[in-house]
Each structure stands twice: as C-alpha cells, then as structure tokens.
From TrEMBL:
GO molecular function: GTP binding; magnesium ion binding; uracil phosphoribosyltransferase activity
Cofactor: Mg(2+)
One GO term (biological process): UMP salvage
Gene3D superfamilies the record matches: 3.40.50.2020
EC number in record: 2.4.2.9
InterPro entries: PRTase-like, PRTase_dom, Upp_B, UPRT, UPRTase/APRTase
Coiled coil: none
Name this protein carries in UniProt: Uracil phosphoribosyltransferase
Pathway where this protein functions: Pyrimidine metabolism; UMP biosynthesis via salvage pathway; UMP from uracil: step 1/1
Length: 211
C-alpha cells in the first residue's frame, strides 16, 4: 500500500469529529452534521494539487495575476445511497462541481454488485472525477462504480471515503491502482458480514435514521 495510493488524513479536527460519529449514541442529526463538516475537511485534501492557472484581476490597490482553478469543472460521483452524505459537504466547498450518481445492489446469489442507476456529467474524460462513498468495506461496489466511470470515459479518478478497511483498500488497489484513496481512518478489519470493525455501523442507516 503506497502512500500515494492511500492518504489517511490524520488531522485533529477530523479525528475528533470521527470519534463522535463512531459513538453509538450519537443522534442522527448530529451524525449528519458531523459528516457534513468532515466531508468539507476531506474535500480540502482530495482536491490537493488541482491544476491552476492565473487571471488578471484588479485589487483595490493594483493589478495582479491571481491564481484560479484551471480546466473543466470537476465531477463528483455519489455512490448511492450513503455517498449522498459525503456529497453534500463536498458540494458546499465546490459548489460549481458537476454531480453524478451510481446505484448498485448486491445480487444475493452471486454476491456481485449489479447496477440499477447510472447518471454522470458529460465529458468525464476532461474532468477530475471524485467518487464518494463513506465506507470502503469489501471494496466490491467501489470497484464496480469505478469500472462504470472508466467505461463512461473517466481517466482521472480519486476516491473519497470516511472509513476504509484494509480488505477494501487491497481490492481497490488490485483493480484500480491508478485511483488514489483519501480517507479519515483505516480501521482494523471487516467482520463476517462485511461490516468495518470498529467502524461506525451502517453509515446509510445512521445518516438517514433508518434501521
Ligand atoms: N457499509 C456500512 O455502512 N458500514 C460498514 O461497516 C460497511 C459497509
């Protein structure tokens, strides 16, 4: 696992908020608010190194060549449904981003992810594409989502999550070594039914108040 492939953002604010999110008695409202805050902090990291250019502007004092983002608007892709929790916060920081959605379910017989929805912005090949899903667990759905994005033309993809399991990171690295992963924490392992340990439970249920 090279550092370039996996970036665990070890920032005090992120780690403090993540601990509050992990606690089982944290309410849905607080969980959602914390996720929004952490996603903004993670967005800062996942957008590091974006191409820049300059534009000529006039400050009240004088003219200058000031830095500004270059290239086409980036694409945020939410892997449904829990991805929407990360998406909201990232969009607040990058309001002009284009947005897409990937919906996958697990076939109970083959245990493989099956696509039920896919909608992505145009010209994916010209954009930085950031796929978001809070939990990188087995990695199967993340790999399938990235497969779909590549098939749709994406060549420059980053993956943003809140928690990752070593198994999921390994699966992603084997299938998509060109896709860097940014996460708030790398947990110990998966349990028998694919939940991240110690984790925070089912991210979708916790953010939407379902069981
Ligand atoms: N999805 C979740 O929401 N939680 C896990 O622990 C694993 C996958």
């Amino acid at each position: 696992m090279t550092e370039q492939h996996l970036n665990v953002v070890d920032h005090p604010l992120i780690q403090h908020k993540l601990t509050l999110m992990r606690e089982k008695d944290t309410s849905t409202a607080v969980f959602r608010q914390l996720l929004r805050e952490i996603s903004q902090l993670l967005a800062y990291e996942v957008t590091r190194g974006l191409p820049m250019t300059t534009k000529r502007i006039e400050t009240p004092m004088m003219e200058m060549d000031a830095p500004t983002l270059d290239g086409k608007k980036l694409a945020l892709i939410s892997i449904l449904r829990a991805g929407n929790g990360l998406l909201d916060g990232v969009l607040e920081l990058i309001p002009s981003a284009r947005v897409g959605f990937v919906g996958l379910y697990r076939d109970e017989e083959t245990l493989q992810p099956v696509q039920y929805y896919f909608k992505a912005p145009d010209a994916l090949e010209d954009r930085l594409v950031i796929a978001v899903d809070p939990m990188l667990a087995t990695g199967n759905s993340s790999v399938a989502a990235i497969d779909l994005l590549k098939k749709a033309g994406a060549t420059n993809i980053r993956f943003l999550c809140l928690l990752a399991a070593p198994e999921g990171v390994a699966t992603m690295k084997a299938a998509h070594p060109d896709v860097p992963i940014v996460t708030a924490a790398l947990d110990e392992k998966l349990n028998d039914v694919g939940y991240i340990m110690p984790g925070l439970g089912d991210a979708g249920d916790r953010m939407f108040g379902t069981k």
